[in-house]
From TrEMBL:
Keyword Transcription: yes
Keywords: DNA-binding, Transcription, Transcription regulation
GO molecular function per UniProt: DNA-binding transcription factor activity; sequence-specific DNA binding
A Pfam match: HTH_18
Organism: Phyllobacterium sophorae
Protein name (Swiss-Prot/TrEMBL): AraC family transcriptional regulator
Family matches, as Gene3D superfamilies: Homeodomain-like
HTH araC/xylS-type domain sequence ranges: 250-349
InterPro entries per UniProt: AraC_XylS_family_regulators, Homeodomain-like_sf, HTH_AraC
Alphabetized SMART domains for the sequence: HTH_ARAC
Length: 380
């Protein structure tokens, strides 16, 4: 916990102001300067108002079918108003949504063909949302960010509302995973939480003018804002401070790092060395996407560091094999899923260090399919 506090204090004076500046960035060129027309981020819109009243709610429900189960109003024949604009930010997604009142629930496990496990950071511009989770019930109103986890069980209702939503995949960043795990199913109703609300508002206003070339910097700014502004809830904080769990996690991290090049390192190996049950091990690593995912994540980060080192001129396949990737194609695919670029790009100095994924061409899909396609792509 001391390390997290230190990170926040270091970030606050500079990174937040830089992040807000990115969200509010002006794209007006200097007088007299000739510039090439920039490539702005495309926005994709879906509205129910162009459909016959009896079909409007079904279209709205299908649009969100990959993340939520929307409950039918008593009379769908009178129509249902819904409008959504989405922006693909590479390894994040941002959306502005206007909806009539409805009830919602997380997807039942048995219905999931392609389960999503993203976090959503939602800020209402007007209206309110009430959420019932297994351990708590909370309500969010206008101007307050709420944190939900699509991989958990919950239900609730929303009034006639307009909202902004930021979608963060669980494997976006190790530090962000820890931060959002401690705050899920809560509202960020603090001074710093309100600052994140300001950031989301500025982002919504400026996204139409953001250029594609600015995406990596925008992703980095958003990550910094989450780390600086999101605080764990009291019960999550108590759980995080539980000394046995903390000691086990730290020991597990040391074991993984020391055996990063050992092909025999698996979940069962780690369980034996820690002396814990399988269920205990899986609970410890649940916030990080599981043991296997975390081990591969650490190996890929180590490979990225080696490829970024100008003094390390080994073949890419040799670097991959040292980190237990015996198939070059498998390594390249896993690397691209993690960082949004190829190992060769990193070797040639053509990529940033964050797990950035280039935006997809959602125009190739029907309007009702785009949102689901985008969320599944974030899932990797």
């Amino acid at each position: 916990m001391r390390a997290e506090s230190a990170i926040r204090q270091d970030v606050l004076p500079t990174t937040i102001s830089n992040a807000i500046a990115m969200a509010s960035k002006s794209t007006t060129p200097e007088p007299g300067r000739k510039v090439r027309a920039p490539l702005h981020l495309p926005a994709y819109e879906l509205t129910t108002h162009d459909l016959p009243p009896g079909y409007q709610f079904e279209a709205w429900r299908n649009n969100f079918a990959s993340m939520l189960e929307l409950k039918s109003p008593e009379d769908v024949t009178v129509g249902f108003g819904g409008k959504q604009v989405i922006w693909d930010l590479g390894c994040l997604a941002f959306s502005r949504i206007k909806t009539d009142a409805l009830r919602f629930a997380s997807l039942p496990g048995h219905t999931r063909r392609d389960p999503l496990d993203h976090w959503t950071l939602t800020m209402l511009l007007h209206g309110s949302v009430n959420t019932i989770a297994p351990t708590r019930t909370f309500e969010g109103g206008a101007g307050v960010v709420q944190v939900h986890s699509l991989g958990r069980t919950f239900e609730g209702n929303v009034t006639d509302s307009e909202m902004l939503m930021l979608f963060v995949p669980r494997d976006f960043s190790y530090e962000v995973t820890k931060t959002l795990s401690g705050a899920e199913f809560s509202t960020l109703d603090t001074g710093l939480g309100r600052l994140f609300s300001d950031f989301m508002t500025g982002l919504a206003k400026r996204l139409p003018a953001v250029e594609e070339a600015d995406l990596p910097a925008l992703v980095a700014a958003t990550r910094a804002m989450i780390l600086a502004c999101v605080s764990p809830t009291a019960d999550h904080l108590d759980e995080a401070r539980e000394p046995i769990a903390t000691a086990l996690i730290e020991k597990a991290h040391r074991i993984i790092q020391s055996r990063l090049f050992d092909p025999a390192l698996r979940a069962e190996t780690l369980r034996r060395e820690l002396g814990v049950s399988r269920s205990r091990l899986y609970r410890l690593f649940e916030p990080f996407g599981g043991v296997t995912h975390y081990i591969q994540h650490r190996r890929l980060l180590d490979a990225h560091a080696a490829l970024s080192d100008p003094n390390d001129q080994r073949r890419i396949i040799d670097i991959a094999e040292q980190r237990c990737f015996n198939d070059g194609t498998e390594f390249s695919r896993a690397f691209r899923r993690e960082f949004g670029c190829s190992p060769t790009d990193v070797r040639n100095g053509q990529s940033a260090c964050l797990p950035y994924k280039p935006a997809a061409d959602l125009a190739a899909y029907a309007p009702a399919e785009r949102f689901g396609v985008l969320l599944r792509r974030l899932h990797g």
